[in-house]
Amino acid sequence: MSASPAPQSVPASAAAPGPAAGRREVAAHREAVEDLLRTWFLAHPPAHESIALGEAAGRLLAADVRAPGNLPPFTNSQMDGYAVRTADLAAGSRPDGIPGSVRLAAAAPIPAGSAPPPLLPGTAAPVMTGAMLPEGADAVVPIEACTPDYFVPAGFLPADGTGSTVEVPAETPSGQFVRRAGSDISAGAPALPAGSVLGPLQLGLLAALGLDRVTVRARPRVLLLTTGDEVVEPGRPLGPGQIHDANTTLLRSSLEEAGAQVLRSRILADSPQEFTARLRADIAADAPDLVLSSGGISKGAYEVVRQGLAAADVAFLSVAMQPGGPQGIGTVEGVPFLGFPGNPVSSLVSFEMFLRPALTAVTGAPRPRTEVQARLTAPLGSPAGKHQVRRGRYTAGTVEPVGGPGSHLLHALAASNALIPVPVGTERLEAGAEVTVLLLE
Amino acid sequence: MSASPAPQSVPASAAAPGPAAGRREVAAHREAVEDLLRTWFLAHPPAHESIALGEAAGRLLAADVRAPGNLPPFTNSQMDGYAVRTADLAAGSRPDGIPGSVRLAAAAPIPAGSAPPPLLPGTAAPVMTGAMLPEGADAVVPIEACTPDYFVPAGFLPADGTGSTVEVPAETPSGQFVRRAGSDISAGAPALPAGSVLGPLQLGLLAALGLDRVTVRARPRVLLLTTGDEVVEPGRPLGPGQIHDANTTLLRSSLEEAGAQVLRSRILADSPQEFTARLRADIAADAPDLVLSSGGISKGAYEVVRQGLAAADVAFLSVAMQPGGPQGIGTVEGVPFLGFPGNPVSSLVSFEMFLRPALTAVTGAPRPRTEVQARLTAPLGSPAGKHQVRRGRYTAGTVEPVGGPGSHLLHALAASNALIPVPVGTERLEAGAEVTVLLLE
């Protein structure tokens, strides 16, 4: 533990650039965070990485992908049945309108995965779903529409499968149950646009196109710092006045869920000099896209981040939000910096209200949160001048507040699956009131 | 490639156990899949694994977790301010109702992460958010309510921080801005129930409780097989009549997203003998909880799964769904077996309609799909007797059908984010009709 630094006076009025009231609105701060990241990534676009398809779930496609070949690669049958030449069937049409049929000689069966010989006039070839249509064939008659309506077992035929006949309907349109080569996507056509989130469906298409690797955008690189002399890593014993670090786990897993790569996560003790020196060294070593700290930014006497970055291009301000009011934003060594408050609930709410939406907007991060309308099951009070963010449990159109407003209530947070914002100006919401909640899962 | 096996006759009527019409309803098959897995996991509950917190995102808690200690671990301040003994303040109360105040001697500041000495009567100690309250103190007066309303810089005071005074409001209730030890959760109380999905919020609570490892349920172990002489791994060149394997990628990434572990994924050629021999060997080697195959189960002449498992306890039947009608279900060597059809769209729809809901219901798998109401932007036709499942793009209350009904249309599937079920009996839905769609993300 470092020696305690000198307490520092921070008069309230000097701390808050922004609107006259000294507090920045939630929407304005969200926009500022988005601008900060947008400016950075415009100048420092993510690198491209070629990775195996099996490793690419949740990643973002780096560039447009065009189909390297036709899909399907060859014209094939959509049904189990007989491939026919429809020109052969005209003879079976009856002028009286009664459905006619034609008897054709059965050719050798076409299994999937083989190239069949051309279909001779007057013959029909057994063909299975997905198998290549022989040259000359232009339609498939499903086995159920043929007589006999099953494939004759091999034991009853000569070894080449020929020698029997099959009766098929005369009114079989050309093209019936035929999947043309390239009918799903043709060679050279756009398959997936740059920025696509690669889920099972997109990965399935790339596999079908024969690709076993894919070029994705490098994940945003985040240097994550937790501060505080009182903070101890989970798994280690606590001394007097100490607490275990929840922020590193909360923010690391949230960042990873939103597609970021956490390069380093550290607990830094409360010495501004040490904080600044290590931060500079880590930035030089890791080349992060974002430095995110928690703790040490409000108006107490020991605010290591605020004191350590006093000379940096970072504003420490107050956002009209509760929890999560104190916020730091700016750049350190030219790299985007965000300082979240140290209470775990405050840091998580800051992530969901500011950083996740910015990552989604700027980098196309996967898993954006969704907002839904819900009815409160219990009344909620809120300070008039604050955008209060309460935690709750959403179930089928209703939301039940969980725990109080306290920013240390991690147990209640862990039982929640939604944030309930109560905007500035609303001091009370009754049970049954309709609110817009942010789903956390 | 194996030698082509003999075509086998499979008269349509013999293939479909179940209702009189020969087709099983979608809901009945979903229930059968759930029953199959439930029976297995009741007899073979998942093993417990102790893993690091950083590896546990998305995993399921194996057993109830109780708090090993109080949270917060000690009584601390909710604000930056002065810790006071409210008994000292009574002297400042005024009988005329005008707010009174009391001047107290300033004690040494209490930084976070240290154990302060007891608070002497008549004194007030500067205390920062989260710092331990000294013995004797029973309330915190926020710095903004004090005179002076900032912490006096150390340079202006003796080294021990004493010697100045602070004026605090007399009407300060006992307990104000005090977070009691155990007020979030008390030692021994239930913190998280068995089966909880471990997201950032739950992991944050475990970290705050000092835990760096967590005991989770082993993931369901799935042996994944793709069949077909015509199927080639992505990255390898195609011969005539061959296609690249999309099913392994589609199903593997879907299974992993739903919390399963894919032990082995293999493309097996079209020899029933080889299929059965390798399946038995893999089951013995891998001890899977589920065998999932795609392809080889319908009524063609070359149906390797159906032929290979003819002697096993597996039913091959027809579900009134399109795509995904042919389905295999049963056990092989006592292990649950599901056979999906070979067309990629059919296999994905089978996963979403049958296997994902069963995994959610039986194992508590993360990321269940959600259903939402949406208005169709274009009309849809559907066969009367089938539960047709079309693909579409959901945006803000509307859903646009993407691609036709064809089960080979992977490009359209990859542009979709929703399934649009059109139930049995509905032959046409007009533009503007309200449908219940299954969101795929």
From TrEMBL, chains A, B:
<comment type="similarity">
    <text>Belongs to the MoeA family.</text>
</comment>
<keyword id="KW-0808">Transferase</keyword>
<dbReference type="Pfam" id="PF00994">
    <property type="entry name" value="MoCF_biosynth"/>
</dbReference>
<dbReference type="InterPro" id="IPR001453">
    <property type="entry name" value="MoaB/Mog_dom"/>
</dbReference>
<dbReference type="Pfam" id="PF03454">
    <property type="entry name" value="MoeA_C"/>
</dbReference>
<dbReference type="Pfam" id="PF03453">
    <property type="entry name" value="MoeA_N"/>
</dbReference>
<protein>
    <recommendedName>
        <fullName>Molybdopterin molybdenumtransferase</fullName>
        <ecNumber>2.10.1.1</ecNumber>
    </recommendedName>
</protein>
<dbReference type="InterPro" id="IPR036135">
    <property type="entry name" value="MoeA_linker/N_sf"/>
</dbReference>
<keyword id="KW-0479">Metal-binding</keyword>
<feature type="compositionally biased region" description="Low complexity">
    <location>
        <begin position="1"/>
        <end position="21"/>
    </location>
</feature>
<keyword id="KW-0501">Molybdenum cofactor biosynthesis</keyword>
<dbReference type="InterPro" id="IPR005111">
    <property type="entry name" value="MoeA_C_domain_IV"/>
</dbReference>
<feature type="region of interest" description="Disordered">
    <location>
        <begin position="1"/>
        <end position="26"/>
    </location>
</feature>
<comment type="pathway">
    <text>Cofactor biosynthesis; molybdopterin biosynthesis.</text>
</comment>
<keyword id="KW-0460">Magnesium</keyword>
<feature type="domain" description="MoaB/Mog">
    <location>
        <begin position="223"/>
        <end position="361"/>
    </location>
</feature>
<comment type="function">
    <text>Catalyzes the insertion of molybdate into adenylated molybdopterin with the concomitant release of AMP.</text>
</comment>
<keyword id="KW-0500">Molybdenum</keyword>
<dbReference type="InterPro" id="IPR005110">
    <property type="entry name" value="MoeA_linker/N"/>
</dbReference>
<dbReference type="InterPro" id="IPR036425">
    <property type="entry name" value="MoaB/Mog-like_dom_sf"/>
</dbReference>
<dbReference type="InterPro" id="IPR036688">
    <property type="entry name" value="MoeA_C_domain_IV_sf"/>
</dbReference>
<dbReference type="InterPro" id="IPR038987">
    <property type="entry name" value="MoeA-like"/>
</dbReference>
